TrEMBL record, chain A:
One cellular component (GO) term of this entry: plasma membrane
Pfam families linked to this entry: BPD_transp_1
Domain ABC transmembrane type-1: 99-315
Protein name per the record: Peptide/nickel transport system permease protein
PANTHER family on file: OLIGOPEPTIDE TRANSPORT SYSTEM PERMEASE PROTEIN
């Protein structure tokens, strides 16, 4: 319990530090949202509109410390302000309407990649030098080292344009009404296949290699030899004895990755026109939309910290050594 | 050491897993693949499908006062008094049937069309027009010259100015008109999202609004029902050019204005009969802007010599894919061909590419070459930065070509490509060296010359400028610009424009490069009646003032 409390203290400190960074960093960027918008309009906007737009967006000219205090206050009251790039939608609405898709895509891809990758790693290490062990890691690393954009466009072209197996864009068909029914859910699932598949393809190699390497180290331990000598079944030794211990680093990685899922898969969203936080963040940065930028950064920070905290808890449960510090 | 025992019991399990996975893939493949729903639909009820490559998701905000209004708010829902087309420079009467300019240029009177109704059935009156401009001034400002807007009678509106300002016609006639009976009840018009808009446009009914698509259906009370030939418009959201272009070249959308590289091969060749594009030179003049607060850019001779070193043909051919038109020494984009002083344009010297002449001109102006390097008057090396936003790959190529050209006359240029926000902030405050910059693009050359030559637009370095980033002004130009704005007849305006062209040719306030093209491509498999080079009633842009002309000209293909 004391350990958890101490951890909690660290997390709160980290949260405050990142809140402050969130506040400071965007303000170091040159320019302001309105002149940015003006530059983008390239001659179609009237110059005298600029001052009015500044007024409309309520751009702050108060001293920094005052802005900082009201920012901290608004974070804890859940009021993140109004987005500029999607004016006049509140930031919480922008994030709320898209985070579901981000979590779905990122979560599904992460779980598939982690589970499959770890399984492959376990099996590859167990049968070292076998077909799986010699063919898969180089192949997966090869695929994973493709520029993601190229891979995704390739998959889109092959399975979407040429073969027509999967839909090419969006989270569900145009004109379909969202709802919890079979038709809608299966439509969402088919739209998920290509984007998730490409993310899995590029990330699975890392999971497999990581697992394989710790697994090899674990398999060399004396207690494995002991278990073999006792005549236990190979699969029992492999999963219950070796894999269980080799899994610890993977748990940490999974927790970290889970936190970053919230940030969205930017390139995936761009290629497959999938709704999500990633592209929104890009637009916010390009449009110098401070409120939205801060809102998204805050969500990501909170998610990473929470995921890490949970991993810490799980770790205490999984690895008794952590408890005695 | 590796465990050598093969887990034989695992094999069937693995096999089962792979089999299920494969089955799942095949299954989902059967249910999927309905992507191309709109393709080939020629029932007569097909929707005109338009992609937005710059919006990953839509917000249900049809408030034209909002800078982030949903697409088509200003094209299909609300309408202006008159429609100006950049393609043929014509003004088409729209909500107003005629207009008259006062002799002194200090007022403008519009006569509204009879029988125009809002989509809720109420009639359009002069009060709506008066209210719209009052609201616009209150919420967004602008229109400083506008003294008073009065409803003379139910069908006549008079705009009075505080000075003679005839070019106001384009700003006023092109402005959208809002219904007073709706907007006067809105508490905070700036933040109102107007989810179910009431407008006079042909397509005002919002249906099936979702974050990545929505439909606009017919306005039942439209004033020219014979021109509502298409059943409706469907907007689709994309998060980038690539995904939008895939849908377009695949025949799933009808009309796009996003940039398609190598369009002949990637689009037209796929279906020569139906796929077309047209990139008229109706955009703004793209200038190489030199910061005239810095030496040597404050010297017109240096500016002209630098201009001579630039190969505009190569820039338009290579960097702009052959889609742009090179500039001449009047600085006028091709949009303003009818204003061009052709005899002056024929005698241009400093916009003709000639490396030797450029080197001689630099020598003559006191920028001598020594040891292969051009020197400034203070003896330092002649070097300069060219800044362009990192997102504009075509303009970065333009800057690189300029860099190579300058090297031939001994000048070292550095192309700097930070994010556009950093670049534009250096333009605003005047801290940049040189840059590739767009110019104002209005119906007459007035906006262009005001933006590059008027002393009234010049801000001191450090203070925010919104035009004339290069900070050049000429009192003589001011007089001509003001006289142009005050003149009510085209003959006088032409005289002032000729004077401005002469001054421009003398001063070289900026280095004009090329007229920006307006991208536009379409497939006529499902709709016909598009504007073309032979019938240029509008441009193929789907976000400008002439878009309404396209929407009311298209006819669905029926099979």
């Amino acid at each position: 319990m004391r350990l958890i409390l101490r951890n909690l203290g660290f997390y709160l400190l980290a949260f405050w530090a990142s809140l402050t960074l969130n506040f400071v960093l965007p303000r170091f960027m040159p320019g302001d949202p309105v002149s940015r918008m003006f530059a983008q309009a390239q001659g179609t906007m009237q110059p005298d509109q600029i001052a009015q737009l500044r007024k409309l967006f309520g751009l702050d000219h108060r001293p920094l410390w005052e802005q900082y205090l009201s920012y901290i206050k608004s974070v804890f009251t859940g009021d993140l302000g109004i987005s500029i790039t999607r004016f006049p939608t509140p930031v919480t609405d922008v994030i709320g309407s898209q985070i579901g898709w981000t979590l779905l895509l990122g979560g599904v891809a992460l779980v598939i990649a982690a589970v499959l990758g770890n399984l492959l790693g376990i099996v590859a290490a167990w049968r070292r030098g076998g077909v799986l062990d010699s063919a898969f890691p180089p192949l997966l690393i090869f695929v994973g080292s493709f520029p993601y954009f190229w891979l995704a466009m390739g998959a889109l072209y092959l399975f979407g344009v040429s073969l027509g197996w999967f839909p090419m864009r969006h989270a569900y068909d145009v004109g379909l009404t969202p709802g919890f029914n079979g038709e809608f859910l299966s439509n969402v699932a088919t739209h998920l296949v290509l984007p998730a598949l490409t993310i899995v393809l590029v990330s699975i190699g890392g999971w497999m290699l990581g697992m394989r390497n710790t697994m090899i180290a674990t398999a060399a331990e004396d207690y494995i030899t002991m278990a073999e000598a006792k005549g236990l079944s190979p699969s029992r030794i492999m999963f219950r004895y070796a894999a269980r211990n080799a899994l610890l680093p993977s748990v940490t990685n999974f927790g970290m990755a889970l936190g970053f899922v919230v940030g969205g898969a930017l390139l995936t969203e761009v290629v497959f026109a999938y709704p999500g936080i990633g592209y929104q963040l890009l637009m916010a940065v390009q449009g110098l939309d401070y409120p939205l930028m801060q809102g998204i950064f805050l969500t990501i920070t909170a998610a990473v910290l929470i995921a890490n905290f949970l991993v810490d808890l799980v770790y205490v449960r999984l690895d008794p050594r952590v408890r005695v510090r | 050491m590796a465990p050598s025992i093969a887990p034989r019991r695992l094999r069937p399990a693995l096999r089962a897993v792979t089999a299920t996975a494969a089955a799942a893939l095949v299954l989902s493949a059967c249910t999927g693949g309905s992507g191309a729903a709109g393709a080939g639909d020629t029932s007569g009820n097909q929707l005109l499908t338009i992609p937005r490559e710059d919006l990953a998701t839509f917000t249900r905000n049809f408030n034209p006062l909002s800078p982030q209004a949903a697409p088509m708010t200003l094209q299909a829902v609300y309408e202006p008094l008159a429609v100006h087309s950049m393609a043929d420079a014509k003004d088409t009467p729209w909500l107003a049937t005629k207009w008259e300019q006062a002799k002194d240029g200090k007022s403008l009177t519009f006569t509204l069309r009879d029988g125009v109704k809002w989509s809720d059935g109420q009639a359009l009156t002069a009060d709506d027009v008066v209210y719209t401009f009052e609201l616009q001034k209150k919420v967004l400002g602008g229109f400083d010259y506008l003294d008073k807007v009065t409803a003379v009678d139910a069908h006549t509106v008079k705009f009075s100015f505080n000075k003679a300002f005839s070019t106001a016609f384009y700003e006023i006639s092109g402005h959208y008109i809002l219904p007073k009976h709706i907007w006067s009840k809105v508490k905070d018009p700036a933040k109102f999202t107007n989810p179910n808009p009431v407008g006079t446009g042909p397509y005002t009914k919002i249906e099936k609004f979702q974050s990545q698509s929505y439909e606009l259906r017919k306005n039942p009370d439209y004033w020219q029902p014979d021109k509502q030939q298409i059943a409706g418009i469907q907007m689709l959201a994309f998060s980038g050019n690539d995904s939008a272009n895939v849908a377009f070249t695949n025949g799933e959308v009808d009309w796009t204005q996003s940039f398609i590289p190598d369009i002949e091969k990637s689009f037209v060749a796929k279906d020569k009969k139906h796929n077309h594009y047209w990139f008229p030179a109706t955009g703004a003049m793209i200038n190489w802007q030199l910061n005239t607060t810095k030496a040597p850019f404050n010297d017109p001779a240096a500016r002209k010599a630098l201009s001579m070193a630039v190969d505009r043909d190569q820039i338009t051919k290579v960097a702009m894919n052959g889609y742009a038109e090179p500039a001449d020494c009047t600085g006028l984009a091709h949009t303003y061909d009818k204003w061009r002083d052709t005899s002056l344009a024929a005698s241009c010297t400093w916009t003709k590419y000639d490396t030797d002449a450029a080197a001689k001109a630099l020598d003559a102006a006191g920028y001598k070459e020594s040891g292969g390097k051009r020197k400034l008057k203070n003896g330092k090396d002649f070097t300069l930065d060219i800044s362009v936003g990192s997102a504009s790959s075509d303009w970065i190529s333009v800057a690189n070509i300029i860099k190579q050209d300058l090297a031939k006359v001994g000048i070292t240029a550095t192309v700097k490509t930070p994010d556009w926000s950093a670049v534009s902030s250096s333009y605003n405050t005047g801290t940049f060296d040189t840059g590739i910059v767009w110019s104002n693009n209005g119906a007459t050359p007035y906006e262009y010359y005001r933006g590059v030559m008027s002393t009234k637009m010049v801000q001191p370095v450090g203070k925010q400028a919104t035009e004339d980033y290069h900070r050049f002004g000429d009192k003589k130009a001011d007089k001509l610009i003001d006289a142009f704005a005050a003149a009510t007849d085209e003959r006088t305006q032409r005289e002032q424009t000729n004077g401005l062209q002469e001054l421009y040719n003398k001063d070289a306030p900026v280095v004009p490069l090329f007229t920006g093209p307006e991208w536009g491509a379409y497939t006529d498999a499902r709709f016909t009646g598009w504007p073309t080079e032979e019938n240029p009633y509008a441009t193929l842009g789907n976000r400008n003032g002439s878009t309404i002309l396209v929407l009311t000209s298209l006819k669905p293909v029926k099979s």
